Amino acid sequence: MEEYIDRVLISKEELGKRVVELGAEITRDYEGKKILVLGILKGAVPFMADLIREIKLPLAYDFMALSSYGVSTQSSGVVRILKDLERSVEDVHILIAEDIVDTGLTLKYLKENLRARNPLSVKVVTLLDKAARRKADVTPDYNGFSIPDEFVVGYGLDFNEEYRNLPYIGVLKQEAYEIN
Ligand SMILES: O=P(O)(O)OC[C@H]1O[C@H](OP(=O)(O)OP(=O)(O)O)[C@H](O)[C@@H]1O
Ligand SMILES: Nc1nc2[nH]cnc2c(=O)[nH]1
After folding, report:
1. Is 126 a pocket residue for ligand 1 (Cβ < 6 Å)?
2. What is the pLDDT at residue 62?
3. Residue 179 — pLDDT band, cuts 50, 70, 90?
4. Which of 45, 47, 67, 130 to mutate to test ligand 2, by most ligand atoms within 8 A of the CB atom?
5. What span, in angstroms and rounded, lies between the C-alpha atoms of 24 and 42?
6. Which of 33, 34, 39, 80 yields a CA-CA distance of 20 to 30 A from 74?
7. What is the structure's pLDDT at 174?
8. From 102, 129, 137, 141, active-site residue
9. In a domain, 156, yes or no
10. Rounded mean pLDDT of 31-58?
11. Beta strands in 27-179 (DSSP E)
12. Residue 172 covered by a domain
């Protein structure tokens, strides 16, 4: 698997340090509030699993799975809910946990959809922000790292469902795209 990694963009140590910082910031901001951390499957799972253990407050977590209609890697902005929340959110502050915000189309749809359910608030924490590709007017409230316009894998992010279990964020070699 790692023979196809061209270079490490964010190391395991850098990821760990930043997740601790994000957890501390969220802990300060949400003191006394009832939080629902909402992970977006599947990419957010490793980040969310580490982050929730750095949020030193009582919280609940749940997941949604979304799929965007579009041609291959091009997101169209039309999103379908594959797995929805299991309960009402009217009494909670929702903190959406994402691995990456790219065009922002997924997040724009999701925020609008969730706001219609009348939660106390909706905010977003993302591990990575690729702002150069933004098409929708959305800004994450908490961002781990701003990254350049490169396709990255690892720590939840995949290429054809592989590489999600790498402990760092890396950039693939050209060969990796050619063999698949
Ligand atoms: O800002 P956007 O351009 O809308 O892209 C961001 C979305 O794309 C990725 O999910 P993906 O559809 O690859 O699913 P996965 O998490 O299961 O890999 C990521 O987890 C975000 O949900
Ligand atoms: N794996 C992966 N998925 C993405 N979805 C949007 N941008 C990216 C990216 O850079 N890598």
Report:
1. no
2. 98
3. confident
4. 130
5. 24
6. 39
7. 86
8. 102
9. no
10. 98
11. 35-41, 59-69, 78-83, 93-101, 121-129, 142-146, 152-153, 169-172
12. no
Ligand nearest to the CA of 110: 1
Residue 153 predicted with pLDDT over 80 = yes
Token pair listed for 36: 């629902």
* β-bridge pairing 142-146 and 152-153: unpaired
User: Which helix H or strand E contains 7, and what residues bound it?
Assistant: strand 5-10
Could you tell me if the CB of 157 is within 6 A of ligand 2?
yes
pLDDT value for 70:
62
The answer to whether residue 2 is domain-embedded is no
Q: How many helices (H) and strands (E) does the chain have?
A: 4, 9
Which range of residues forms the domain containing residue 45?
12-147
When pLDDT is averaged across residues 28-41 and rounded to a whole number, the result is 98
Is residue 149 annotated as a catalytic residue, yes or no? no
Task: Give Cβ neighbours of residue 10 (< 8 Å, ≥ 6 apart).
Answer: 145, 147, 155, 168, 169
CATH number reported for the structural domain that contains residue 140 in this entry: 3.40.50.2020
- Higher pLDDT pick, 8 / 179: 8
Task: Tell me the CA–centroid distance for residue 164 and ligand 2, in Å.
Answer: 11
Distance 32 CA to ligand 1 centre (A): 31
